[in-house]
Design a protein that fits this description.
The structure is a single chain. By secondary structure, the protein is of the alpha/beta class. It has one domain (11-266): Alpha/Beta hydrolase fold, catalytic domain (Rossmann fold, 3-Layer(aba) Sandwich), CATH 3.40.50. The protein has helices at residues 2-10, 29-37, 63-76, 90-100, 122-125, 128-141, 159-168, 175-178, 187-190, 206-215, 229-232, 234-247, 252-257, 261-268, 279-282, and strands spanning 14-18, 41-43, 82-87, 105-111, 146-147, 172-173, 192-198, 219-223. The strands form two sheets. It has a six-stranded parallel β-sheet, sandwiched between helices. A two-stranded antiparallel sheet has the order 5-6. Strand 7, helix 10 (206-215) and strand 8 form a beta-alpha-beta unit. The longest helix is centred in the first third of the chain and has 14 residues, at 63-76.
Length: 287
């Protein structure tokens, strides 16, 4: 039994699936179940201020907040050799997370997602008309800081899910779209990376990202569906994620620094980055 368990563990992959703008963990429910049914570990964090965490939304929530959501998940769950997948806006989030903790990641998967370069923000990666419309929506319907969700019909979501998707999506802080990403590494130099383009919807801003991925030498794939790939083609996406896991090589950063994450973490993460509470201050709290 021990030998069989060891073999089973060796075949398990850890996936962290990051949703896009206005979404939440809920959008991954079909793919999450399929991957878990196949015996893998799957985490689908909801970013601060969205989905079931919408009560935490504020003008202060930024791209850095969302990057920290993912980085802290990887650290506190002590995840390693991770397939990190970001959908749409989630491409910016996983780029920032991979830049901070490259030793924990095996492959990056950009699912119909932005591929930012250092110093770019989401509005830089959209057409001027689209960016202006989002800014106008924040001013007229979001108290100046909150961007209402774009209807799923614009992304050509399947008809069965359209009403549900529109009901589930929540407004998002404009700061997350305006913040310029800080990157110290080029993702393609640190990890295997794949960009998947959904070709079944009009005026996609991710075609430019797909061409950038090709220019970077990344693996590229296409799927014939709307932007909500995890809802439109959950089975096909599951199969693709399983395939990408088998072909991914260890990160060069992992190889260079050894396999011990405790050692890599000690070298790279200052203690104050954990934002742990002062034990002395806790004594003054009334429970």
């Amino acid at each position: 039994m021990v030998a069989n368990d060891q073999i089973s563990n060796q075949n398990q992959t850890t996936y962290v699936l990051v949703h896009g703008a206005w979404h939440g963990s809920w959008c991954w429910k079909r793919v999450r179940k399929s991957l878990r049914d196949a015996g893998h570990h799957v985490f689908t964090p909801t970013l601060t201020g969205l989905g079931e965490r919408t009560h935490l939304n504020s003008a202060a929530v930024s791209l850095s907040t969302h990057i920290a959501d993912v980085v802290n998940l990887l650290r506190w769950e002590d995840l390693s050799d991770v397939i990190l997948c970001g959908h749409s806006y989630g491409g910016n989030v996983i780029s920032g997370a991979a830049d901070q903790v490259p030793e924990r990641i095996r492959r990056l998967v950009y699912l119909d997602a932005f591929v930012p370069e250092a110093g770019e923000c989401v509005f830089d990666l959209l057409s001027p008309e689209w960016a202006q419309q989002m800014r106008l929506q924040a001013q007229t319907a979001g108290d100046g800081w909150n961007v209402p969700p774009i209807p799923g019909e614009r992304f050509n979501v399947n008809l069965r899910d359209a009403t549900w998707v529109n009901a589930q999506c929540t407004s998002q802080s404009i700061a997350s779209f305006e913040e310029h990403i800080r990157l110290n590494r080029v993702p393609s130099h640190t990890h295997d990376a794949t960009h998947i383009l959904a070709t079944g919807w009009d005026n996609s801003p991710f075609r430019t990202a797909h061409e950038r991925a090709k220019a970077n030498g990344w693996e590229t794939r296409t799927v014939t569906c709307g932007h909500e790939v995890m809802l439109d083609l959950p089975g096909e996406l599951t199969d693709l994620l399983l395939e990408l896991a088998t072909s991914a090589a260890p990160s060069p950063f992992c190889v260079a620094n050894g396999s011990s994450h405790s050692r890599a973490l000690a070298l790279q993460v200052p203690r104050d980055r954990f934002n742990r509470p002062d034990p002395n201050s806790m004594r003054n709290l009334k429970w």
